[in-house]
Amino acid sequence: MKLGVVDVGGGLRGIYAAGIFDFCIEQNIQFDCCIGVSAGSANITSYLAGQKGRNYRYYCEYAMRKEYMGLGNFIRTRSYINMNYVYGTLSNSGGEYPLDYTALSKNPADFFIVAEEAVTGKAKYFDRNDMAQDQYQILMASSSIPGVNCPYEVNGVLYFDGALGDPVPIQKAFEAGCDRVVLILTKPVSIPREPGHDPFLARMIQRKYPVSAEKIRNRAQIYNESVELAKQYQNEGNVLILSPDDTAGVTTLSRNRQALDRLYQKGYHDAAAILEWLCP
User: Around Cβ 64, how many Cβ atoms within 10 Å?
Assistant: First the structure.
């Protein structure tokens, strides 16, 4: 049986998945195929490297720094989150908490990082061949939220957040040969996604990236349709959906340490369902 996991990200709400992956590392739960979207890409790489607690520190400590994200960054660079600081300065060898790339490269699991081509709107599925020691640009590309960050360039192509390319890549997991898949959402599965600020974000990039702007306008609908498909798979026994009963007050860019810790603990606790699902 090929076991897969999909982490859809969600900005700082991704700490819910960080709790799940830390539980999996503790319990030696091994996934054969891992797919990360946006913040989920960082969660996936730390999990595959076996670095328990690394993501927690990024969410609850580093994210509080002005170098990580803030209005100053946006004024200087038009990007609220400094991707080069997060996935370069902090993550490179010699950084404050480097990614153990050696361990990651030795992990036999397949992994895919989802992004969206800013100009064409096409989904891009990066894989391990697109990453090297201290070359983590694909994580930056997958996490570049339109309107919050400028698109990130990889090999001459501009990319936006993976949530525009494939917000819930459950079908990708089955196409990759998975028999069963754990799907991690970072908001309650019972509550449909609302457009929220999407129309405003779409207007911000409409002139330069009209195709991506249209995808932002349709993002909530596509997300909700994908979750409904996952529910069908769950009814058939092929998917386990993990989602928080509430987000503990954490939003995409919120920086409340207590709320973040509560959401992390929810993920860690909810992860026990994986063991029950695999060994009923």
Answer: 14
